[in-house]
Write a structure and sequence with these properties.
By secondary structure, this protein is mostly helical. It contains six helices and three strands; from the N terminus they run H-H-H-H-H-H-E-E-E. It has one domain. It starts with a helix and ends with a strand.
């Protein structure tokens, strides 16, 4: 586990008032994936319903598979998820632990579940139309976001 993951994990541990040593006992690659997926859902979709949050999980996982990158590397790629570009790292720690827990539960449900996004790798809020939207196949709308796939990759 790298220093950024460690720092965020310790921060969450302190915020949740757990023993700092306890979470590290079972830290595996899957745990790290769930951790970064939960952070991503928290910052991208915490106000979404369960389906909207799960759709963000699937998009992130689909990008990881298509690009042969770890979940963390996908989340931290430049200009992929807005929160990693506009929120300073020192503010990445979730302050709303109830919302973070809800996001964690969405990740748990979606992690090994059926990908109802049909392989979507892109999404945007339905109030905007980004320049790239016409370049991909529209899949559906989940929550407040439109989802797309690039089947030519």
């Amino acid at each position: 586990m790298d220093i950024l993951s460690t720092a965020l994990w310790i921060g969450l541990t302190v915020l949740s008032k757990q023993s700092i040593a306890e979470p590290f006992k079972q830290f595996t690659e899957e745990t790290e994936n769930v951790f970064w997926l939960t952070l991503n859902v928290y910052h991208e979709a915490r106000s979404e319903n369960l389906v909207g949050q799960m759709a963000v999980v699937h998009v992130t996982k689909n990008r990881s598979i298509k690009r042969n990158l770890s979940i963390k590397d996908v989340v931290l790629q430049p200009k992929q998820f807005s929160w990693t570009n506009i929120i300073p790292k020192k503010r990445w720690l979730p302050l709303d632990l109830k919302a973070f827990d809800d996001c964690f539960r969405s990740v748990q449900l979606a992690y090994n579940g059926y990908d109802f996004t049909e392989g979507a790798t892109y999404y945007h809020h339905k109030s905007i139309t980004p320049y790239w939207a016409d370049s991909y196949t529209y899949i559906s709308t989940f929550g407040t976001h439109h989802y797309y796939a690039n089947y030519s990759q």
